[in-house]
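Students often ask why we bother encoding 3D structure as a string. The short answer is that it lets us treat folding as translation between two languages. Here is a chain of 1272 residues written in the first language.
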Amino acid sequence: MVVMHQPHRSEHSFDLQGQVYLDCGCRSLLISSSLIRQEERGWWVGVFHHNHGDRAWDSTAVCVFRMEELQDPTCVYITHFYSGTNCKVQSIKKSPTLIHSGLVAVYGTVVLNQIVLFLGTDDGQLLKAILNEDMKSNCPEILYEIEEETSIFPKLRLDPVDSNYIYLFSANKVRRIPVANCGRYVSEQECLSAKDPYCGWCSLNQRCTLKENCTRSNSTKGWFNISHAPDKDLKILLRFPARNQISVSASISKTLTSCIIKIVKPIEMPHENVVLKNSSCVCSLATSVILDHDCLVLEASLSSNSWNITETFQLENCSRCIHDGECASCNWTRVSPATACQDICSVQNSSKDIITAQKSEHINIHSIEPLWISTLGKSEITVKGENFTHASGIKLILTGSSGCKQEIIKVRNVINDTQMTFALPPMRKEAKSVCIQADGRKCSPPVTLHYVSLPACFGITPNTSWISGGRKITTTGRNLNVVDKVIISDDQRSNLTISEYPQNKSEYHYLSPSLSHATEGKVVDMIFKVETTFVPCVKLHYHPDPVFINYQLHTELDPDLELKIYKENDNLNISKTEVEVYLSYMNGSQTAKIYFSVQNITEKPDRSTILCKFKREGTEKIDFSTVKVFVKLGNFELEVKPTSSYIYLYVLILLPIVVGVIIVAFIVTRYKSKELTRKQSQQLELLEYEIRKEIREGFAELQMDELDVVDSFGTVPFLDYKHFAIRTFFPESGGFASIFSEDIPQSRDQTRKDESFNMLHALICNKNFLVTLIHTLEKQKNFSVKDRCLFASFLTIALQTKLVYLTHILEVLTKDLMEQSSNVQPKLLLRRTESVVEKLLTNWMSVCLSGFLRETIGEPFYLLVTTLNQKINKGPVDAITCKALYTLNEDWLLWQVSEFKTVTVNVIFEKIPENESGDACQTIQVNVLDCDTIGQTKEKSLQAFLNKNGFPYGLQLNEIGLELVSEEQQRELLDIDGSSEMIEDGIRKLNTIAHYKIANGATIKILKKMTNTRSDVDYSDEHCHLILPDSEANKDMKGSGHKGKQKFKVKEMYLTKLLSTKVAIHSVVENLFRSIWSLPNNKAPVAIKYFFDFLDTQAENKRITDPDVVHIWKTNSLPLRFWVNILKNPQFVFDVKKTSHIDGCLSVIAQAFMDAFSLAEQTMGKEAPTNKLLYAKDIPLYKKEVKAYYKAIRDLPPLTTSEVEEFLTQESKKHENEFNEEVALMEIYRYIVKYYDEIVSKLERERGFEDVQKQLQQVKALFDEKKKCKWV
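And here it is in the second language, the structure alphabet:
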């Protein structure tokens, strides 16, 4: 063993000096080591393994050597080499610090003057152990477990950049694991009592965290750990005041409330006559079985009002002290429960004596089965031995390193004198020491019991079987020896148990059961049963039994026999070792058998051949006329019939017939092929003509067409603030809109509210309570995403007049959300609406930006909606599906359109009482299409009236009718009437301008309808407009007007219409975008500037240096959370109706808007979606403008607190008396009542909420009283 030596105290390095043999509890095989340094001190830590072959509970151990112990070796390599002198190598023995079944790696470091060891195991566990000043370990904590249970490499390393993480190396992966799991401690006392030097209590967040994860962690009051704990030096002290007495006291003098003392080794002895004094306690111990050579282990637990402590002591040479009071040679030390009195050398030397004594006086243990169980425990293990019925107090004692404390399990059933059973509880995976104790005597020699994880399947060979079963199946996996039963699950029958207790750890062999009830192939599940848990393994495919056609027996090779068996091809992949072939024949009056040797199985496209051979010995004759051939596969056995000699005759008869049929089929096929080719040529020519025509017209339209944007569209129909807020707060809850939108009576005194609502309002105005309430609600499983959004909106309504307070709540909740997201992926922050704070941010932006939206963005946004509608209506629009020729969305493209033309009609508007303005134009020229329905003509007429006069016509669409004015007669125009065209399958086509043969210059009169007609209802699948039904798509259309056009339409020919629509509205879209991301007068809206600065500050506090993260935060909080919602929903801002087609087009514009804020580089290919390709060339320019926009906001002078609060106060005053706050408070109270017990429980666990609990109880009492009076 190489030794480190420190030549000078001032240096922090060691050089190679010599060699020495190290012994760690009779373990000398070094597996891994680590050097720990702390200024001038150093320790060398090693993992040692004993030389035994089997893996046992004590196979490995950790020993810690001080560097001073290794500085004086007796043998040095250099001296020995040159002088030739013989030297004896020194041997240093150490007691183990920690004993474990499979340690393979160690890394040590010093944190807060405590040595922390990170240990890797051969089954993929990462453990953490903390050593005390005596170099004894606490109970190791499991930091991480590799699911595949692969062994950890011998080297562990801390992250050189962030020492709060450690690198874990395994066979196929490197993992970065946190060094502590501080979140498991929920209270300050638990956090500090754990004595983990990495963890401390963060007073601001009221959580146990790492120092780096706590805000204001540099302050002593902000974050404090065990070094700041008042009882950090607390220890237990032992004294022996008199014979058979032990006195226990704490190093810090405090009044004790509880004291427990007991000896746990060599036998468990309860305390007797405990006398509890102020700061110590004394107990008397039974001494009848304590011998001089016994290693005693004593466990003491003390408790006071502010702390509790438990320590384990190892007493050596103390039996005389206890018996006679002579304590000069008694030595007691604090030890880890996992290593107390576990010296492998003494166990090996004394085991023979113990066994001998037990054979003569005590129970004798022969075996314990099984010794491999899962982490679920075992309902029954069997112990076999002798003298069981004469023993009393039989117990099984489990000892392991992860639990530290012994598990004592009483016997379940003593079956007879030689057999008894125990039930083992669930535990974490590890190898444990198990022994049997009876009659208050020593335990039997320990054996190793392995707790392992649940079994897992890796594969099955083969994965098929024939239905009759009996095929040998091999399953490979992990921990198969803990399986109780292997079950084949069949949905048509009860489960089939095919085996119990597989003995092999990694392989399991069984014969597939028969599924005789199945006539066809089926798939069954192979399932492992472990206790009451069923673990799915693999699927076994059952195929029909193999079909053997016939055989040929060749006897010309006498004395050898050659047999060929022909079978149909299948998916069974049968091997030659699975096939058993034998031949039977009559030998006189007896049946004789010959078993063939299968040579090979060859597969051809039509069949497979099994070649078998048999070498005869002697001159025995075989009567081939009595021969029968049998094939056996598992449970399947079949007699194979010989090849028929008449088959060749059948072939000769059928051959001419088959040839004739082939010749006739060839002639007929050739004729039909020529005819089909001719028709296809005609169709291709027609299709080519159509494509050329459409492409030329599309090109001409792109170059020449211009859209006459309406200069005056009248007053922008803004919604008032109340309706704008309702639609943004509750986009999917129409019922709440009616509640909040009702006008509040003017006579109502707003200053006088019901006492219950006043108290509830005061309660939610308590910042700490409100934050605790929201966090508690979000932890409830049935508090859904919809509930979170509704709660946030109710809270916004209730605090509408207290925006300053609401903003503070938003800050706190956003910081908490950042703490949750930082451990996973900070770029995902605010991307979705899955928490209260995310919906609250959306509502807050809507409130604070409502004025900016109305004053700056409203007019260009309304112009975009109007222009888009105008462009869509310029071409045909299908009245049933709403698809249009001009659109931005390929999904809404009307590519099945036929020829159309524009018709100009004179529309006379009848005067109505609702519109008596003398300036209103009563006769207007309206451009419609000959393919427009009567309903579409009405819409265009009303829109033309609005554009001409600046105000709408007084009647709604369903209140007006059209009448064709001519010299002959007046004719009412309807979508459906007696003249409507009837298509096949009972489908009627809607009437159009062309149907009524309305020409240019015709006069149409709009009048008020007296009765409702068919044209007012929604049309079903029984009607069609421009898109003909599917039943007609593959048939020639009747009539010259349709024939040859409908079936040759190709969607891709009309993609230029998307570009045409984009060009028509491009300037309007760009104007809207730049209105959003520009800074009028070099000023940003207060809400945007404030929240962006807040995000910048949080990024600095969390030490986030990646600018992309902050960019994404800002994008998720403003464009994604607010602007996209507005762009896709104009009905939130204006009194307009959004059609599904307009929604599809606005989705394309909104996607382009979000692409401008994205940091990802877009690489568009030819196969990219058209919705992306439309704005692909514009996005790079937009991205530059967005980055400049973000930079300009960041460069603006920061807002003062007074400026922000003044803005929020003004906004609060604007919206006073807009909503019925009591309704919102009532909805909030319903959530509080629903989760009342959970909320109260949370408040009881937190400090400083005593007054809040009383207020909450008073609020509940008031509401309960109102409910009794039927006020609520």
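Translate back mentally: The chain has a mean pLDDT of 80. Keep this in mind for the problem set.
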